[in-house]
TrEMBL record:
Keyword terms: Cell outer membrane, Membrane, Receptor, Signal, TonB box, Transmembrane, Transmembrane beta strand, Transport
TonB-dependent receptor plug domain: residues covered: 122-229
Gene3D superfamilies per the UniProt record, alphabetical: Carboxypeptidase-like, regulatory domain (2.60.40.1120), TonB-dependent receptor, beta-barrel domain (2.40.170.20), TonB-dependent receptor, plug domain (2.170.130.10)
Name of the protein this chain belongs to: TonB-dependent receptor
Coiled-coil zones: none
Organism: Spirosoma foliorum
Entry superkingdom: Bacteria
GO CC annotation: cell outer membrane
Molecular functions (GO terms): siderophore uptake transmembrane transporter activity
Membrane topology of this protein: Multi-pass membrane protein
Amino acid sequence: MRYTELLILLAIHFLVSWSALAQSRRVTGTVKDSETGQPLAGASVLVKGQLNGAVADANGQFSLPTSQRGATTLLISMVGHEAQTVVVADGNQTVDVKLRIATNSLQDVVVAASRVEESILRAPVTVEKMDSRAIRETPSATFYEGLNNLKGVDMVTSGLTYKQINTRGFASTGNSRFLQLIDGIDNQPAGFGFSMGNLFGLSDLDAESAELVPGAASALYGPAAFNGALLMTSKDPFRYQGLSAQVKMGVNHINDSNTGAALYQDYGFRYAKAFNNKLAFKLVASYMKGLDWFATDYTDVDATTSADKRGPNNPAYNGLNIYGDEINRTITDIGKVSRTGYQERYLTDYNVYSLKLNGALHYRITPGLEAIYSYNFAKGTTNYTGSNRFSVNGFSLIQHRIELRGNNFFVRGYTNQEDSHDSYNTRSLGQQIDRTWVRDLNGNVVAPNLADQTWFDRYTAAYQGKIQGVTASDQSSARAFADQGRLLPGSAEYEQQKARLIGIQGLAGAGILSQTNMYHADAQYNFTSALAAAGLTGTELLVGGNFREYSLFTNGTLFDDKGGRIKYNEFGTFAQLSKSLLENKLKLTVSGRYDKNQNFAGYFTPRGSAVFSPNDRHHFRASFQSGFRNPTPSDQFIKLNVGPITILGGAPSNSAGMNVYENSFNSTSIGGFVNGFLGDVGKVGPQQAVLNNKDKLVKSNVPYIAPERVQSFEVGYRTLLTSRLSLDANYYYGAYRNFILNTVVIRPNSPALASDGSINPAAAQDILNSNYQAFQLYTNAPDRVTAQGATLGLTYATAGGYTLTGNGTWSDFNLKNADPNNIPAFNTPRFKTNVTLGHRNIAPNLGFNIAWHWQDAFDWVGSFNDLRPGRIQAYSLLDAQVTLKLPTYKTLLKIGASNLTNQYIVQAYGSPAVGGLYYVSLTFDQGLRR
């Protein structure tokens, strides 16, 4: 039975069970600001214990029905104000509520830390939050970019439409160690194995909040939350009604030597409507386009050339953002020579866009039961830095969600369906174009499989003086001769070949095919109210679980799936128990989660925490957390034969019958055997030389791939030093093991071992005769490393309305005795800091916000540069915005800049230098809030 069918049956069951409930009472009232007496349009009014609620209108008035008998408790809240609880006596009644302005962000309520609502002050682990007002007032161009101002966050920009976030080290441009949820939906295209930043995420107009939990969170959120989790929530159509629209125009590439100034455009639309507090819907659309940042670092990174000889005149020149020059040969009496490559700017399309279409339908079956269906469609183009630079071109992600949500539970199912469309590998494209035009010495264009060797033959002949009219022993002249007929960027033939090769998926072209699907169902139930009814006050119990199926399809271009889709599944279940003691001053929480992927052993991840609050101002916390990360689909199932080597994923089924793990030699032992053989063969003959040196070969013992593991300890302290000054500090220490890595082995045609367990001479002879195949295997390193860090945040709100926030983060990595080749790069600056200053009403209806970010220098290590370090220099960023409210027109005018000083900054080695973006936006909001 499909998961959706199961969920429909569950929905029918709940509908029948609760359909007898009826609304029989109405509560009305007014919500105002306690200082100004002005009505608070958009204030939320909820009935405690129910989903039923209302939103205050432009006059601050609300009206809501409820089926509760006796006293009814209302929860009244408004962004930027302190929430208030009001008890309403039996019978119809009108209430007047005045909310005080919240002077500190530590008065917020969060969900992410424990999967239940709680004060951020008493959250058991570190948690950061952006509410709807912070989202609206961020000085960055988008709210997602504004996450960089939260303490502990690392953000890496690969392109205008693609930014990747991380916490607590081991950052990468494709972060599969960090979970990103939108309304509970995992926002990753499963084929990638990680979320593509906010390319397929929330529109700014529909973003209500973002909560971030740094560090291992697998005990509650499963294997993807190895380094942390970001939970984003869209706006509920019952609470946020009316029409909203935004037009944002900007400019980037100011003073860019690569191009002239370019137009940036961002349009948004949202409409929501509710009927009788029973049925509500919303429609959301956004479209952004602009000219992406150019990757133009042409530094010679050839590893075999000494640093003093690298550069444009190096015959083996390998430019970082030039593709095709990776192809090289070492030619006798000449040395190492590389082919002439093409700059990235001629291979990719820097005109990028992001289209997001969302719709949702909400139906309140009863005041305590709501059914939801949502549909998300996203399509866009971005440039992503991975092992190569990829043009994610027209990539689409479709999501369907159905959910049944009650006061104490939810049951949810969703699907993620991706299509790579016209995406391609720019490095492969450069190499393949270089194979379309090469001529032999008779002037005839050769076949692509002969092109590279033919080019080097031409080079050799010219250098050796065998070509009339070409200067001998001159590298430049030899290259010019070998390059005769080279397709020039911009020419008709170049563009024709470029388009053709992008359309060819697999090794013969540059195109990428991924049509991978993911099906997910999860549920959660909170037994706290039932326990309270049983007399166990102060005890909370939460249970839940999920089931997920992956369905992979690349038509043989990446996986061995020409015969049909590769499918596998995983499930997880968790429980969390909390108890309040010492008159609610101490809260103890234990959590445990068990996960099982069909390809791996099951894993149990516990978490324990204690929060001690001697009074309302001071809150001390300590926790032990654990996490793990399942290998991505590519880690498990890639099977790509690239000629001299086959890249092979580490799932046992992926290599079944190939005799690789069982019968291979460590590649590092091959050199010793070959050199020993060559030294002996002239003395004792080939047969004896093999016998003398065969034991230098080492049979491999590579384990199948398994999840990564981490155990982390954290202590923290939150305090409201005064009503206007708050502090939040934490320290963590984490131990990591089982990092996923690649290793190369050599499989001989003969058995590696003889019957007595010694090295088989026939297998050794296979190595000499090239009767073998090389494999790059995905596996795990046994090494153990540690990381530690600390953050400190201060927020001060002045009596005059200014808010000053500062935070700093220290991160430290200890390699211990581990082999650095077995450990992913930490890729995290040792120190970073953020300072923000803002005022919401520095003058009537006029506000501003300024944010300054600084981080120190560090070495970035990634697969794009073959795991060789590239220096990321220390840099600072200044974002700023000024907002003018036009209440009569329900419109906000915002003028702002990301990277106001227009410094061109590289955040990951090989990625583009990012400059300033200057914008003006007009936002019309029918439900405009203060």
